[in-house]
TrEMBL record:
Originating organism: Rhizophagus clarus
Highest taxon listed in the record's lineage: Eukaryota
InterPro entries, alphabetized: LRR_dom_sf
Name this protein carries in UniProt: F-box domain-containing protein
Gene3D superfamilies documented for this protein: Ribonuclease Inhibitor (3.80.10.10)
Length: 488
């Protein structure tokens, strides 16, 4: 293993780029491994799950590049003395990203004083603008330095492909970024304010190849000063021909904005993924205009079944993930039984590639039959979130248990060979006998993950059964989580 070709090693380590523990361990094997791993680790040295405020080594490596600028200042104030020792590699030449929050954390190693930290950060940003010649990613949340004015920023910021920012940044800062960065493909914006930020609108408008946009409201006050969504939506409308991925979580959409949403969303015809919190502002006639032929991922928090069916029907057969958070919405649907049956059929008819799916339906014979047909048709299905709800009658414990038994029998008969995860609430039960029989019949298939919100399966009699079949390789995990975590 230690004598593998350098190119092969690089491909292996690239697959492990999110596994910092393995990468750090690999540095110690030999010089070839070390030289291969270093560029991968330093491509984005800020992304690892470590406490950066305690990482003096990282601080010292960066500071070693600007020893003369920073050492005299720190030692003169009785602060940290850094080593003049040159690093073994030109680490920063591999760096493709800047993360403001991490740089702020490691600057506290140099000094506990805010003014000193600001000075250290300025030196670091100036250095990064010079050394990181192929910048691709910026996380500038909470930034206080106007990095686009540093020497060589004109050249190096042009290559930025992805940016994460928030509304704590003054709008004038976005104007500066918009002037330097015009080929951003992905923008993630965290909205922490009820005020309109014209700067983020300008940043969107200036992009020539925007493919992905995410907006997330993150505040508690529900009183807006102006309309924070109107200009954003208009700017995104201008990018409809290039936009492939759209993720929007608005806290407060008012009725007067529905008309704008109804007008703009049909224009996003090139979407590959759509994640949105609410899709109930369309009438049935308007839904016919939502034609997303390239869509692969549909993730909606609040949606009616007929809305979901319409989107699925108008898709181009490429859907791989349909993750719908039904919550209690189905309680208000007048034709729940009919709509849920239609939805299952639309999936079966239009989604041959589906891998991840959430379903809700009644425990009728017809629904179970359609569900089994879906399993036999959609052979790529890997994960299923399922809700079985009888709105017509209040079911006894025996009825609920029979529903669970029926579901497991169908999975044994018809589940695709790739199927490996099921999520469910407490809307149906598995008796100890039925669950044991299911586990025995599942032997020889991929290990199954079962995730539930029903804590009955944490009782000793169930845990003993689960652990027994985990030892046989039947169960990968069987865990009880909150209802919220069932969806995510």
């Amino acid at each position: 293993m230690s004598k593998l070709n350098r190119d092969i090693l690089f491909l292996i380590f690239e697959e492990l780029q999110d596994d910092s523990k393995t990468l750090f361990s690999s540095l110690m094997v030999n010089r070839t491994w070390s030289e291969t791993v270093i560029p991968i680790l330093w491509k984005n040295p800020w992304c690892y799950n470590i406490d950066y405020s305690n990482k003096s080594n990282l601080f010292n490596i960066i500071a070693s590049y600007v020893f003369d600028d920073i050492e005299e200042y720190l030692s003169g104030r009785g602060l940290l003395t850094i080593s003049r020792k040159q690093p073994l590699y030109d680490y920063l030449s591999f760096c493709r990203s800047i993360n403001v929050e991490v740089i702020q954390d490691i600057s506290t190693i140099g000094s506990p004083i805010d003014y000193d930290q600001f000075y250290i950060q300025e030196i670091f940003y100036n250095l990064l603008m010079k050394k990181c010649t192929m910048l691709k990613f910026l996380d500038v949340r909470t930034i206080k330095h106007q990095i686009f004015y540093f020497p060589e920023a004109d050249v190096h910021l042009k290559s930025i492909c992805e940016i994460i920012c928030d509304s704590s940044i003054d709008c004038s800062y976005f104007y500066g970024l918009a002037h330097k960065c015009q080929y951003i493909q992905k923008i993630t914006f965290i909205n922490k304010s009820t005020k309109v930020n014209r700067g983020i609108v300008r940043l969107i408008e200036s992009q020539k190849d925007l493919r992905s946009f995410e907006w997330k409201d993150d505040f508690e006050n529900d009183y807006f000063i102006g309309d924070p969504y109107k200009d954003i939506l208009r700017a995104l409308e201008m990018k409809a021909d290039s936009l492939n991925h759209l993720k929007m979580y608005f806290l407060y959409i008012y009725r007067y904005e529905y008309t704008m949403l109804q007008e703009i969303f049909p224009k996003f015809r090139r979407l590959i993924s759509l994640l949105i919190d609410d899709f109930c502002f369309f009438t049935k006639d308007q839904l016919k205009s939502l034609i997303y032929r390239d869509i692969e991922i549909l993730n909606v928090d609040y949606v009616t079944l007929d809305t979901a069916s319409s989107i699925v029907e108008n898709s181009g057969g490429k859907l791989r993930k349909i993750l719908l958070k039904y919550c209690d919405y189905y309680n208000y649907e007048d034709y729940f039984n009919q709509d849920s049956l239609i939805f299952i059929r639309k999936i079966r008819e239009n989604c041959p590639r589906i891998e991840y799916l959430s379903l809700i339906f009644s425990p009728s014979e017809e629904h179970f039959t359609e569900f089994e047909k879906l399993l036999k048709t959609c052979r790529n299905l890997k994960s299923l979130l399922i809700v079985i709800s009888n709105l017509d009658n209040e079911e006894s414990f025996e009825d609920i248990s029979n529903n669970g038994k029926r579901l497991l029998e169908i999975l044994i008969r018809s589940a695709p060979t790739n199927f490996r995860e099921i999520r469910f609430f407490d809307d149906f039960k598995f008796s100890l006998e039925v669950l044991g029989k299911f586990f025995k019949n599942w032997r020889g298939r991929p290990a199954l993950s079962i995730i539930t919100s029903d804590d009955v399966y944490e009782e000793e009699k169930y845990t003993n059964l689960i652990n027994e079949h985990r030892n046989y390789g039947v169960i990968k995990e069987f865990i009880c989580v909150s209802e919220k975590d069932i969806y995510f």
